[in-house]
Design brief:
The chain is globular, with a radius of gyration of 19 Å. Helices cover 70% and strands 0% of the residues. The protein is mainly alpha-helical. 26% of the residues are buried. Helix 9 packs parallel to helix 10 and helix 10 packs antiparallel against helix 11.
Length: 245
């Protein structure tokens, strides 16, 4: 990539490197520093973040330092440390991902990158509504701004059809019809929708579409490899149902 393309794809690399950041935080929590060193040796994270992850004694210290030095990850607000203490690392990961996506979609982006991240936000919002319905939460969950599907439409569809409204939203978003709102089916269908969109954009040979299509497929391969490793002792059909084809 030349400098112009690297700048255009910087948000994508930041988003995908969140996985590395989160794994390193988990390693700190589980006292596995050697795994952190291996990951960071091939990571695109900045030297500042790498240093925090390499030298912090535990996950809580790393989160506190990241929040102080890189408020970008907390949405410009404090509270990541409190979130970790109250709700654990998974809640921190969700908050950091939401903050990064919200910041990216506000930035000046290449047109295809803006459309891609809008679709990612749509997918996360649909999943947020789905989880809220499954848990029977009384209050409406906050949704990320910047998606291509208006928030009013998302909430109206769910309010009208309840949990089966998720099936309608998934079909409208991805073009994939699911009969029942099961967790795996919902998530895989949303990923398939993004894949189909990028495949279409990738037909333009001289634009950024083919590159983004390739990089997205690489990220899905990593996701599928993680599923295969985690499910190595499970039945083959069960593992296969978790893969994004």
């Amino acid at each position: 990539m030349n400098g112009k393309l690297r700048d255009a794809f910087r948000p994508f690399f930041l988003y995908t490197e969140l996985r590395t950041l989160f794994i390193c935080l988990r390693n700190l929590k589980e006292k596995n520093p050697d795994r952190t060193a291996d990951l960071l040796s091939v990571s695109l994270l900045s030297d500042g973040i790498k240093n925090i992850l390499s030298t912090s004694p535990d996950a809580a210290s790393a989160i506190q330092t990241i929040e102080a030095r890189f408020p970008f990850f907390s949405g410009g607000k404090t509270g990541l440390t409190e979130t970790f203490e109250a709700d654990g690392l998974r809640a921190v990961e969700q908050r950091m991902t939401g903050s990064v996506l919200a910041a990216i979609i506000r930035a000046r982006l290449h047109p295809i990158m803006r459309s891609f991240f809008a679709r990612l936000i749509d997918a996360r919002n649909i999943l947020t509504l789905y989880k809220s319905l499954r848990l029977a939460q009384r209050s409406a969950p906050p949704l990320l701004p910047g998606g291509s599907l208006p928030e009013g439409r998302l909430r109206e569809t769910v309010a009208r059809e309840e949990i089966f409204g998720i099936c309608t939203l998934v079909r409208d978003f991805s073009g994939v019809k699911i009969e029942t709102p099961e967790p795996t089916r919902v998530e895989i269908a949303l990923y398939k929708g993004i894949t189909a969109y990028l495949k279409k954009e990738g037909r333009e040979p001289f634009g950024a579409g083919p590159i983004l299509d390739y990089l997205w497929k690489c990220s899905l391969e990593v996701m599928n490899l993680n599923v295969l490793i985690a499910g190595k002792d499970l039945e083959r059909d069960l593992v296969a149902s978790e893969l994004v084809q």
